[in-house]
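S.,

As promised, the PTJ run. Input:
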Amino acid sequence: MKIPRSHPRYTSLMAREKLVRAWKAGIVVPEGLIAHGRGEAFDYVFGEETSAPALVAEKAAAAFLVRAKRPVISVNGNAAALAAREVARLAKVIPATIEVNLFHRSTARVDRIVRLLKRAGASDVLGTRPDARIPRLESERARVHRVGIYGADVVLVPLEDGDRAEALVRMGKVVISIDLNPLSRTTLSAAVPIVDELTRALPNVEKFVREFADDPREAARIAHTFDKTGNLRAVYSFMNWRLRNLTRRPPRARTVTRHR
Ligand code: PTJ
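Predicted complex:
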């Protein structure tokens, strides 16, 4: 379907269109479309903008990623459909390994996602030949590469399911999540939970990674001082403030007058 650029919800409709196309192409699973809807609902509450606490978490994420010895970016169907190019760019600047890791795993879908990421500029993508298992995790997500997620010290997990995030934390890894749900088990278990939309969060993290390239001492300071509990509290206060403001001044529908 062609979405007119003038539509007030253009960005949101385009994201949905991308996901539906990716579902038809066998990149995204139907469950991924449901997960996106849940994310969109939270994003409405956040005003579809990066909040100040999310930006703080994005800076902390960049600090952990540049200081990591073996950083890995884990990619699933939704992340590949929405942000293949952003993932490839971030992996290049860190530099980090990319590994495709799916909840609803099939070899054909892993292959398709690897190809998509390579077309988007990623040079080396793991995922096709997992040779290790994440301990105490029953799902297909447990299947990982020894030189990838299994051996990583810092793992970035966009749109994760809570089980694996917790299992990675149990393995002693620094888990950085990107999840619009501020109450999910992923958000609660990650060392650096980024409560922001994926396509906004990744370029922000990339920008901070570039800044830290000239200032490793600042990266160390940020990594040492990041306060996860304080940051999540700030996220909840921001939501509270947004909702209170909405009760005082209910929003009006945004209209595009020139098309009336
Ligand atoms: O491709 P697969 O097989 O690995 O499956 C991917 C999904 C997303 C289906 C799988 O990981 C899953 O079931 O995830 P959950 O448990 O539904 O969690 C996804 C989380 O991502 C939810 O908390 C959503 O709020 C959040 N989310 C959805 N879209 C976005 C998002 N967060 C940030 N940016 C988004 N665009």
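Residues 256-260 have pLDDT under 50 and may be disordered. The beta strands are 71-75, 97-100, 125-126, 132-133, 143-144, 154-158, 174-178, 192-194.

- D.
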